[in-house]
Design brief:
Elements (H helix, E strand, L loop, with lengths): L1 H20 L3 E14 L4 E15 L2 E19 L2 E11 L10 E14 L2 E13 L4 E14 L10 E13 L6 E15 L2 E12 L6 E13 L1
Parallel strand pairs: 1-11
Antiparallel strand pairs: 1-2, 2-3, 3-4, 4-5, 5-6, 6-7, 7-8, 8-9, 9-10, 10-11
């Protein structure tokens, strides 16, 4: 409870400060539920359902923006490297017209290693975002760390912390390239051997080389692993 209270205090201060200082600020609440399971020693699947809702647009409010359905198939090359293919469908038109629904295909390479109780990972992604009016090719690199907050190894009931920084480049026909930056952090708890709960926040600077949009997320995740 200490970590939850501290997180919400920090989140409230940040949202208040950003809302006061920034005119082009948007705030979202994004909960998601994931299911991961192994098909074999080196091959696994994951499924996720996520909802995104506005919580700040010029004033505080609540309005659903979209729902995402996501699937990934991952193959572990060795203990440190993995390859994955993903597909995602975004339902937006129903909730946020004139926004369009979107099909996304993803190719991913991930490298991770551990140093004592600190885990580090690099992730490279290429995405094709396909909507009725436009196809966008996006390239992403993320550096992430996580570590337990009690002891050297994560045990059931223990909290942990994770943080990441991700750079994105989006290109499309007839449009100028768009550069984004994302900073994310989570407090998490290992509820049992197959279940994790995470509460976090994310800041996004979108199109920061031209007309920067400041976007802030409150994140919650419930993750089941079989």
């Amino acid at each position: 409870m200490y970590y939850i209270k501290r997180f919400f205090v920090v989140f409230g201060i940040l949202m208040g400060s950003l809302a006061y200082c920034q005119e082009n600020l948007t705030g979202y609440f994004q909960p998601d539920i994931s299911l991961k399971y192994k098909v074999s020693t080196n091959y696994s699947h994951s499924f996720k359902v996520a909802q995104r809702a506005y919580i700040y647009e010029d004033a505080f409010s609540y309005r659903i923006k979209q729902i995402d359905l996501v699937h990934f198939s991952s193959f572990k090359v060795d203990p440190k490297q993995s390859l994955a293919l993903g597909v995602q469908y975004r339902f937006r038109h129903t909730f946020d017209e004139p926004g369009e629904n979107e099909l996304r295909t993803v190719q991913q390479y991930k490298y991770s290693h551990s140093n004592e109780n600190l885990n580090m990972g690099s992730r490279f992604r290429a995405e094709q975002r396909i909507s009725p009016s436009l196809t966008i090719h996006r390239f992403r690199y993320r550096l992430a760390i996580d570590f337990p907050l009690k002891g050297e190894e994560l045990a059931v009931g223990d909290p942990y912390f994770s943080a990441s920084a991700e750079a994105l480049l989006s290109v499309s026909k007839g449009e100028s390239p768009i550069c984004d930056q994302r900073l994310t952090s989570h407090f998490g708890w290992l509820l049992d051997h197959g279940t994790k709960l995470e509460i976090g926040a994310e800041y996004r600077a979108e199109d920061y080389t031209q007309a920067t949009q400041h976007i802030f997320f409150l994140l919650t995740s419930l993750i089941f692993s079989l």
